[in-house]
Fold:
Amino acid sequence: LPSGSGRLVKLTSVGGQACRPRNGVPGAFISEHATGNALDLGGLVLQDGRTIRLTEPDGATRALREAVQQSACRRFRTVLGPGSDSAHKDHIHLDMRQRN
Structure:
């Protein structure tokens, strides 16, 4: 985390393993969530008690949110969030599936 942001103590998640097709669409390919290969991340809880929601356009936390996104893109093969599609408007989806 960037200097001065506080220590990370907890991730808030909106989803992990769930046996379902992609985006819950019947007939779609199986989701990475079905194999336990994906995590939906909602935010961060810092040691000082602050909760940083990763999808809210709060100017005060912009640098922290950008640092988290850059870090996620270095570690995961797929990072989806607001703007990617309607299924990811309120969270960040992370998985390791190789895509084009």
User: Anything to note?
Assistant: The beta strands are 8-15, 38-46, 51-53, 78-80, 92-95.
